[in-house]
Amino acid sequence: MTADDLLAPLDLAFWNLESAEHPMHLGALGVFTAQSPAAAAHAADLLAARAAAVPGLRMRIRDVWRPFDPAEPFDLRRSLAFGGATRESDPAFDPLHHVTLHVPTADFQAEAGRLMERPLRRGRPPWEAHVLPGADGAGFAVLFKFHHALADGLRALTLAAAVLDPMDLPAPRPRPAEPARGRLPQVRRLPDLLRGAVSDVGRALDIGASVAVHTLGMRPTPALTAAPTGTRRTAGVVIDLDDVHRIRKVAGGTVNDVLIAVVAGALRRWLDERGDGSEGVVPRALIPVSKRRPRTAHPQGNRLSGYLMRLPVDDPDPLRRLGTVRAAMDRNKDAGPGRGAGAVALLADHVPALGHRLGGPLVSQAARLWFDILVTSVPLPSLGLKLGGNPVTEVFPYAPLARGQALAVAVSTYRGGVHYGLVADAEAVPDLDRFARALTAEVETLITACGS
């Protein structure tokens, strides 16, 4: 076992947070234009053939229960990993177990929701690809599922791109070689290591205190909370990126500020239309922040922090909502992603492996006290994606749904469009399509308010 075999602390946390009602996998639904009636079947064959050649897709996760092997020299790293897990190549990997060609369907989103309910099998590499032929024969869709312990958003994108048609991407920047290390750190580096350790502890205390303060008196938003049912419903919305830029140029802020404000306004419209009311509703949104650099990051391990902010759902003025979101995001950025209640994911680094295993169920129960809704951004390449020569026209990212929460929002920009991918508890949010329509309506409201 090497250091690279061990799951990073946050990966291990995701692995142990999972339950049958709350699978911890990411998803992405790509919709393709079919170039021939056999395009979907050919796509399934291509995915299976290409997956066999991608090392990252052969990786399975295996639990570590032996602190040491009597037949081997003592290894402190293995002892500390007791109760953890390793990432290793599966010698029995068969891509046919991971790629499934389904019967034709008239509703890609309905089928995606059903498939997102099912946890990934733990004895195999934790990913799946489902090819969904369109009932009209004019297109097909592919749903990719990756366990969060295997990949974060950027890593999942890399793995999915490896089985799509090759793209002309810039070569990754080589990582600088690290100097060889012995079992003990070099004496000259001890002061820096100590300072770093003290800084890490201080940061962890800051985050812990901030989480405690932010959760005091926390009352979850009823419409965004749900008892675990294990059911899932998905929906997708595409809006014009040019519309977002028009709003941004008039009202200020970033594209991301506008996209978050659209979610706040859509929640207001949705709550009012379904009769729940938006008065006094200011749900907490977790905005994940990737600490991974796409061209230089280590290929494995989640690198996530986050911002926590109140969504001004109760404010009737669309431009004021955007201004509130912009100010909150500016404050978060000034503080940085390493501090504050939103950075709670960083605390995973300070928990031993066995602690993640024993504490996972407890932590999963606490998510609803920490935030009401997840709003995350998943980057996509600006170049057009294809599979077997069939172009991708839409891509809807899906985020995992935390225990006790009813709705998660993921967003990607692709080929001039902003794609919102929505995942909800199907029993708690039977009207997810209404929320999807509210997103489109909120963009139109902002455009009108901007005088565009």
Automatic annotation (TrEMBL):
Pathway, per record: Glycerolipid metabolism; triacylglycerol biosynthesis; Lipid metabolism
Keywords recorded for this protein, A-Z: Acyltransferase, Glycerol metabolism, Lipid biosynthesis, Lipid metabolism, Transferase
Pfam families registered for this protein in UniProt: WS_DGAT_C (PF06974), WS_DGAT_cat (PF03007)
Domain O-acyltransferase WSD1 C-terminal residue range list: 301-444
Domain named O-acyltransferase WSD1-like N-terminal: residues: 7-258
Catalysed conversion reaction: an acyl-CoA + a 1,2-diacyl-sn-glycerol = a triacyl-sn-glycerol + CoA
Tagged with keyword Lipid metabolism: yes
Transmembrane segments: none
InterPro entries found in the cross-reference section: Acyl_transf_WS/DGAT, O-acyltransferase_WSD1-like, O-acyltransferase_WSD1_C, O-acyltransferase_WSD1_N
Presence of keyword Lipid biosynthesis: yes
This enzyme's EC code(s): 2.3.1.20
Family statement drawn from the similarity comment of this UniProt entry: Belongs to the long-chain O-acyltransferase family.
PANTHER family hit by this protein: O-ACYLTRANSFERASE (WSD1-LIKE) FAMILY PROTEIN, WAX ESTER SYNTHASE_DIACYLGLYCEROL ACYLTRANSFERASE 4-RELATED
Protein's name in the database: Diacylglycerol O-acyltransferase
Organism expressing this protein natively: Streptomyces asoensis
